[in-house]
Amino acid sequence: MAEELRIKQLEKISGQHPCFSGKSNMNKGRVHLPVSPTCNIQCKFCKRSLNKTEQRPGVTNQILTPEKALEILEKALELCPDITVAGIAGPGDTLATPYALETFRLIKERHPELINCLSTNGLLLERYADELWEAGVKTITVTVNAVDPYIQAQICSFIFLGDRVYEGVEAAQLLIDAQKRGIRKMAALGAVVKINIVLIPGVNDDHIADIAETVSQLGASIINIIPLIPQHEMADFEEPGCQELSEARAVAEEYLPVFRHCQHCRADAVGIPGKGDLSHLLYEFGGQEQ
Ligand code: SF4
Ligand code: SF4
After folding, report:
1. Atom number, ligand 2, closest to the C-alpha of residue 224
2. Which ligand is nearest the CA of 87, by number?
3. InterPro entries this protein is in (predicted)?
4. Neighbouring-strand partners of residue 88
5. Which of 14, 109, 238, 286 has the largest count of CB atoms under 10 Å?
6. Closest Cα to atom 5 of ligand 1
7. CB of 30 closer than 6 angstroms to any ligand 2 atom
8. What is the dihedral sign for C-alpha 41, 227, 178, 158?
């Protein structure tokens, strides 16, 4: 996508979507619909969970069917009329199962005014890009933690693709190649692509410029760098401090605009990100560890 068009698109979406600039973070809302239970890769820091307390990605109170998700969306719109975005961000990968696409199709039919927004690890993004675009997905977040397979292999234990499990550098290279193809395709279709990078000190903190340069060339519009939450196989790793985070953001900003208002929301978050989560008003809480 031409540079100028990309900037114009980002400006336009920034006024409507709370997570593509600081501009709308305090006055536009999103609802996350947790319809995607499983994943097709294993990031070493990922611990998905069903509970009502933790405020982080990968956590939801419950998994919804696409039909139930539509009901929750309707209630969320009544509760918070400033919601402009219907997002699906897990708790697993949104393309590992068909439910995210099914949900977006239902939403597009009933609420074509909403922006459909998807987060993914990108492994299957190229395969589903046309269908996502058809289903009204206009903004997308792809998590790209490395573009060097030797670094990615330290972050991702394995990937599951076409009935096979791949490990190590082979898995990492397959994932990186798939992410690149997916980002390029979504950007070419006209979607605004945000890149999430989980900053992992000692692993990818010296690699931010390479990631930012690569995704910029592929057509991404904005970068969101989020600090590692040390858990699962990375439980003993250090969480980056404010200084490290701020340095990484400055490096990325040499290549693309950087989003600095991310709240690290749950997979069932509801409302205006800068004003707190309303999901407890929509769900009957229960749940158990997954
Ligand atoms: Fe967890 Fe997302 Fe990584 Fe899958 S892609 S393992 S859901 S962090
Ligand atoms: Fe927005 Fe960050 Fe929350 Fe995603 S996790 S909805 S980018 S604030």
Report:
1. 7
2. 2
3. Aldolase_TIM, Elp3/MiaA/NifB-like_rSAM, MoaA_NifB_PqqE_Fe-S-bd_CS, rSAM, rSAM_sf
4. 118
5. 14
6. 121
7. yes
8. negative
3-class DSSP state for residue 269?
coil
Pairwise CA distance, residues 224 & 21, whole Å: 10
- 124 within 8 A of 178, measured Cβ to Cβ: yes
What is the position in ligand 1's atom list of the atom closest to the CA of 91?
7
Q: Tell me how far CA of residue 33 lies from CA of 36, 206, 230, in angstroms.
A: 9, 34, 25
Here the ipTM equals 0.90
Q: Which atom of ligand 2 is nearest to the CA of 141?
A: 7
Residue 170 CA to ligand 2 centre (angstroms): 31
The tens place of each residue's pLDDT in the chain, 290 residues long, gives 577 888 888 888 888 898 887 777 778 899 999 999 999 999 999 988 888 888 878 888 899 999 999 999 999 999 899 999 999 998 999 999 999 999 999 999 999 999 999 999 999 999 999 999 999 999 999 999 999 999 999 999 999 999 999 999 999 999 999 999 999 999 999 999 999 999 999 999 999 999 999 999 999 999 999 999 999 999 999 999 999 999 999 999 999 999 998 888 888 999 998 787 888 888 765 443 33
Q: Is 264 in the pocket of ligand 2 (CB under 6 A)?
A: yes
Taking the CA of 44 as reference, the closest ligand is 1
Cα 162 to Cα 43, 152, 159: the distances in Å are 19, 20, 10
* Ligand 2 mean position, distance from CA 183 (Å): 19
